[in-house]
Design a protein that fits this description.
The chain contains 1 helix and 3 strands, in the order βαββ. The chain has 69 residues and is mainly beta. It has one domain (6-68). It is elongated.
């Protein structure tokens, strides 16, 4: 089975960015883009809905190294 040319890697809850980059490297990918998305939580205050940022989701898009193809 051949690998995809581009793959997305999410930084897991108990993982550092450095560990995620090492995981990418061990699978044969090089990071080409960093994607950050805020995660919101809906809270009701005095019958008004508020969306409060809770955490940040970090993902890296990786490109397959030429020698791995």
């Amino acid at each position: 089975m051949s690998k995809k040319k581009k793959e997305r890697f999410e930084v897991k809850e108990s993982e550092t960015i450095e560990q995620c980059l090492e995981r990418m490297k061990s699978e044969g990918y090089v990071p080409i883009r960093r994607i950050e998305k805020p995660i919101f939580e809906e809270r009701t205050v005095n019958s008004n809905k508020e969306y409060v940022p809770v955490k940040q989701q970090i993902m890296f898009e990786g490109l397959l190294v030429e020698s791995e193809q």
